[in-house]
Design goal:
Blueprint: H1 2-10, H2 16-45, H3 49-54, H4 62-71
Helix pairs in contact: 2-4
C-alpha cells in the first residue's frame, strides 16, 4: 500500500496524460528488468556445477544472483 500512496503524492497535479505516461514508463522499466532477470537465470542455468563453482557460486545461488543483477536488490 505504501507504493500506491507514494505514487499518488509523487504525481500530484499531473494531468491524466502525464500520469498515464509515468505508468507506461514504469511498466516498461519493470518489463525490461524482468527480461534481464530471466535472461540471467537462463544463462546461469546452462553452466555446469563445476563452472558455477569456478565463479564462486552454486546452482542454489542462481535466482539470487539474477535478482541482484536485474533489480540491484
Amino acid at each position: 500500500m505504501a507504493f500506491a500512496h507514494d505514487t499518488q503524492h509523487a504525481h500530484r497535479g499531473a494531468s491524466l496524460a502525464q500520469r498515464l505516461g509515468f505508468l507506461r514508463a514504469d511498466l516498461a522499466d519493470r518489463v525490461e528488468k524482468f527480461r534481464l532477470y530471466r535472461a540471467t537465470v537462463a544463462e546461469l542455468e546452462m553452466l555446469s556445477e563445476r563452472e558455477l563453482n569456478d565463479l564462486g557460486m552454486s546452482s542454489a545461488d542462481i535466482k539470487s544472483v539474477a535478482r541482484q543483477a536485474a533489480y540491484k536488490a
